[in-house]
Each structure stands twice: as C-alpha cells, then as structure tokens.
Amino acid sequence: MLSSLVKEHQAKQAVRKESQDIKRKEAVDAANELTNALVEHLNVGVAQAYLNQKKLDAEAKQLHQSAIVFSKQTSQWLSLIDNFNCALKELGDVENWTRTIENDMRNITTTLEYAYKVTQKS
C-alpha cells in the first residue's frame, strides 16, 4: 500500500512536471513572440528614423552645395557692381573733363573775340 502511494505520488509528480514543462515551453514561446513583436515594432521606428536621417543628410548636402553656388553668384554680382560703379565714376570724370574743356574753349573764344575787336578798333 505504501509503495502504491509512492508510485501514485510519483505518477502525479510526473504529470505535474510534464504539465509544468508544457506551460514553461508555452511561456517561453509567448515571451519569444512578444520579444519579436516588440523588436519588430521598434525596428520599424528605427528604420523610419534612419531613412529620415538619410534624407536630412542628403538635403543638408544639397543645401550646402546651393549655398556655395549662391556665394559664388554673390561674389560675381559684387564684382559686376564694382565694375559698374567704376565705369560710372569714369563717366563722371569724363563729363567733368568735357565741361572744363568747354569752359576753357569759351574763355579762349571770348578772349579771341575781344582781341579781334580791339584789333579792329585800332
């Protein structure tokens, strides 16, 4: 009778152990599935962040190139404006020079007319 109780007890323990093993495997599988689902969900976010970063890097490079081109254009514009200002100054100098010559020629003409009149009278 005692041996039958021990056998019965051992049989119950074996059934419980088998049941616990099954539940442990189910729990491990469920944990693995949960972990995989969480990692997959996080990977989607990480992948999106990575793609966004790549886009930002590409746009930053493009912006840098555009800034370089704009800087070169600005330098060219400044050079053109400087040349234009110099040309305007030269035109102003030429205009002033022509006025001076015109005034000198008027003075010479007036002097010559006066000298001619004086010579005619005498």
From TrEMBL:
- Which chain regions cross the lipid bilayer? none
Chain intervals for the UniProt region annotation (Disordered): 1-23
GO CC, sorted alphabetically, is: BLOC-1 complex
Q: Which InterPro entries match?
A: BLOC1S1
Q: Mention one GO biological process in which this protein takes part, according to its record.
A: endosomal transport
Q: Which family does it belong to?
A: Belongs to the BLOC1S1 family.
Q: What is this protein called?
A: Biogenesis of lysosome-related organelles complex 1 subunit 1
Origin organism is Sipha flava (yellow sugarcane aphid)
Per the UniProt record, the lineage of the source organism begins with: Eukaryota, Metazoa, Ecdysozoa, Arthropoda, Hexapoda
